[in-house]
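Agenda item 2: pyridoxal-5'-phosphate complex prediction
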Amino acid sequence: MTRHFNFCAGPAAMPIAVLDRACNEMKDYRECGLSVMEMSHRSSEFMAIAEQAEKDLRELLEIPENYRVLFTQGGASLQFSAVPYNLLGQGGTANFLDTGIWSRKAIDEAQRLFGAAHVAASSQAGGYQSLPRQEDIVLSEDAAYLHYTSNETIGGLEFDYIPHAVRPDGSEVPLVCDMSSNILSGPLDVSRFGVIYAGAQKNIGPAGLVVVIVRDDLLNQACAGMPSLLGYQALAKGGSMVNTPATYSWYLAGLVFQWLKNEVGGLDAMEAINARKAEKLYSAIDKSRLYANPVALANRSRMNVPFVLTDERLDSLFLQEAEAAGLLNLKGHRSVGGMRASIYNAVSEQAVDALISFMADFEQRRG
Ligand SMILES: *Cc1c(COP(=O)(O)O)cnc(C)c1O
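Presented output:
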């Protein structure tokens, strides 16, 4: 059996140690005589798995006591609806930073459901190749919260600061962040946020699970008449088991948290590795004549590295040869073309090294 290097943007590579452990426990989980995916979510075994996962995530991100952690479903995209439903019950307008395709989807959904969405800053005019700075952000007078996307997975841009969410009158509103593609890539000050959400399939585990971290005081701001399964209050009260949760994905997420804690050595260590991987890859791109990345230096993502070939006639040959060399899923998003290497937590430094040497070799032969 050969494992190739997988640069997929999502569902993304999993740590091999996690796959090994899941494999060992697959048919008979700790002498229970059945697999985790066949267990009742109310069994003591699964309850222990669920509790341990939350405990480990809390420890990794140092989540304060006054935050609830929800393990829910529907993808990050369902949170584009859930967030306004949960936070606009007392009126006001959802505010957004418009930074690319994912933030646009969140804006469009709030607009569709509530008839209004205020764009507090946008990088559209510059073709989404840089991110707004704090001084560019102007909230509406009636802002209920500010939503932003900390890492634009398709454009390859990542905030290097946490925005302040302050109305023109100086009052602060909750900050909401779609952290789907960079959560757990390094340490985080959770106390700066009202709501953090992330689809699992990039840095947490397999698809089918969404992690929501929500501050206690925001649990009672929901709109009357919203779909009950989207309610943070109900999910928090029911221990994320209002209906059947994505049990196997939850279990695998728990194994990823343990891998981060015990094998990587925590989020400071993870951040150092991620910084090294990204630095190497961008530097190889910048030094070459064949490859280019258009993103402003300060805003380059450490997780998703899009690049184009300056001679785009070589695109398909590049992808074909990369695949033959065991480097998978380098094709850029269908909306932007070119290439994209997603180098999430589980993509090893060895994988990045292999990509860099393939790129150099390809440029020498074909460039
Ligand atoms: C992948 C992604 C999403 C969408 O996730 P789904 O689980 O497919 O709904 C949303 N936001 C960001 C930033 C993403 O990377």
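Discussion summary: The chain has two domains: 17-262, 266-366.
Owner for follow-up: CH.
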